[in-house]
Amino acid sequence: MKKQFFFSYVCLIFAGSNAQNKTSKMSDKLLPPVAAVKPKKLEKHGHVRTDNYYWLNERENTEVIDYLNKENDYYKKMTAHTEQFQKDLFDEMKSRIKEDDSSVPYLYNGYYYITRYEIGKDYPIYARKKGSLDAKEEIMFDCNEMAKGHAYFQLGGLNVSEDNKWCAFGVDTVSRREYTIQIKNLETGEILPVKLEKTTGGSTWAADNKTLFYTRKDLVTLRSEKIYKHKLGSDAKNDALVYHEKDDTFSVYIYKEKSKKYLVIGSNSTMTTEYQILESNTPDGQFRVFQKRTRGLEYNISHFGDSFYIVTNKDKATNFKVMKTPENATAKENWTDLIPHRKETLVEGIEIFRDYLVVEERNNGLNKIRIMPWSGKGEYYLPFEIETYTAYTSTNVDFDTEILRYGYQSMATPSSVIDFNMKTKEKTIMKEQQVLGGKFDKNNYTEERVWATAQDGTKVPISIVYRKGIKKDGNNPFLLYAYGSYGSSMDPYFSSIRLSLLDRGFIYGIAHIRGGEDLGREWYENGKLLKKKNTFTDFIDCSKYVIEQQYTSEKHLYAEGGSAGGLLMGAIINMAPNLYNGVIAQVPFVDVVTTMLDDSIPLTTGEYDEWGNPNDKKYYDYMLSYSPYDNVVKQKYPNLLITTGLHDSQVQYWEPAKWVAKLRTLKIGDSQLFLDTNMETGHGGASGRFEAIKEVAKEYTFLLDLEGIKK
Asked: Pick the catalytic residue: 172, 683, 687, 705?
C-alpha cells in the first residue's frame, strides 16, 4: 500500500499549579499537540475537499518533524506510568524465545544451509556446511557485525551461484525497501567493490556463474520496473538493461526455475500475469514470452522435464486449476488440464518432485496438502485434525527425493518443521518451536473456529484461542485481529508473544473477513473494488458476534490491524465506534482518495485493480464513502494507538499523522489518542528480532492498561 503525512503542534502545556501537579495524574496535566491548520483545496470530478493537514507530507519540513516529535513526546509522557510494565513485558516475551536458535538445515547443490542466532544478539547469522552437517561451518554473513552503526538493518535476497563460489546479497539500512546489492566471494571472504543501487534486493545467477540478473526500482514511485544484467568484474554503470516494464500498473522481478534450466522474468498486476523465459546457460540470449498478458488471465509456471506446469484461472477457473504444456509450445492454446477447476477448492500452489506432484489447496477455509504420485495411483491428503491450524510446504529445493518438508502450527501449538516421506507416509519432526520458561503447556488453551453471520447472510469464520477456565460472561478482554485485502489469507498461527495476553485473561481472535482469500477466490473478489465495504461490515459483524456470544462486551473488546488492516481499523471506528474500548492501527492506510489520486506515491498505480482508479468518478465516489480520513466526524471514538514509520515506503507516514490531527479536532470525550512515529524505520517497524518485540510490548501495555491490568 502507500501513505504519508505530517503535522506541527503547539507546545505541550501543563494544567494546574505545581501543588496540584504533585497530586494529579500525568493525564490530567498534559494537553496533546495541535497540528497547524493550513487548508488546501483538492478538486476532482467537480467535487472539492478541503484538507487542513495536507502540508504534513513535506518530509523535509522542520515544522513537520517538530510536530511528529511532539506527538511522540506526548505519547511517552501520557504512558510514562506503563514504562516499567513495558520493560517487564518485553523481558517476559523475550524469556520465552530460544536465543541460540537455528533453522532446520536444508541441502542445496552440495551444501547444507543454516540460519542461526546467538545469545544476546539481535540479528541472524547465515552459514553453510559442505556435504555433511559434521563439516566445518562457513559463516557467509554475520548480520550482527553488518548492522553495527545502523539504526535499521535488513539483509535480503541471498543468492548463491551454481559453482557455490559467489553470493549476491541485498542490504537496506533505511527501511524503504530499497536495497543495495553486492557480491561476496565465498571462498576468500572478499566483498567486491561493485554496488548495484536502488534494487529490490533480489537477484539470480545464470548458469555461467558470471552473469547476475537483478531488478531496479523507479526512483520516485519505488515500483519494480527494470531488469538489468551485471557481468562479474564489470562496472555497474555498464550493466545492460534486459527488460523495462513500462505499464505502471505492473511490477517486474526475475528468478530461476527449480530445475535450473530457465531464467524467468515475471510481470504482475493485481489481475494479470505475464512471464518471459530464457535458458539459463545462454544469459546473453533473448527472453521469449511464455504467454502474453491478457487482462484477467493469471498464471504461475513450474518447469519439470520437458514440460511446464501451470496454476491458472484460465477458462473462468475462479479458484484456479493446474494445467500442463510442452516447454517448446507455451502459449495458452497448448495448455491442457491436469487438475480441473473445482468450485469449492482453491488451488494455491504446487511443488514438483521426481515421483510426486504436491498441491497446496484450501477448502472451507482450511489448508490442505495433496500428494499425487505421477503414476496416478494412491493419491492422498495429509491428515489434520483440528480447524485452527496452518499447514504449508516449506523449503523443497530438490527434485530427486521422496521427502516433503512442510510446516505446521495452530493457535495453541508451536510451529513445527516436518519431513514427510511421501512413499512410506512416515513423518519426522525436524524441529518444534521451543517456548522457554517451563510454564507453557498447549493443553492449557482452548482453540475454536466459530462462524458469524454477516449482514448479507454470509457466514464468516473466526479463529479463537484462550486460556482454559475462562467463563463466557461478557467480562473477558478480547483482541480481534484482521487484515482483509489483496487476497491475503490470515491463517491461524501460534505466537509465544501472544501468551502474555492470553495468560492475563485475554481472548484472541482472527476474523477471516472478505477481501482475503481465506474461503477461496470469490472471498477476495467480494471484498475489493466496489465491494470493499464488505470487509468492514464483516469485521463489525464478527465483533457483534463475539459480544452476543458473551465472549466479551463493548467495554472489553479491542481491535487491531496494520497497513490495509489499518484502513479496516479506520473504517470500523467511523462506522461502529461504540463497539470497541480500544483500537490499535499499525501503519494504517487511511487517506485512500488522496493517495490513490497521487501516482507519484509508491505502489499507487499498481493498486487500481485492488481499490479502483479514482480518476473514474464511480470509484472516486465509492472510496470517498469509506476513506477513514475523509469520514472522521464529531463523535466519540475508542481509545486509539496509531503507529507509523517516518521512512515507510508502503503507507507514507503522513497518512496516520493527518488522521490523528483531524481526530483530535473532532473526537468527543476523553478517550486516549496516541501517535507513535518511529523516526528511524519504515513499514515493517524495527529491525532485529528483539527490537520488534519492544514495539509489541508497547501495544500490549496500551491494551492491558485500559483493562486496569498493571502487571
From this structure: 683
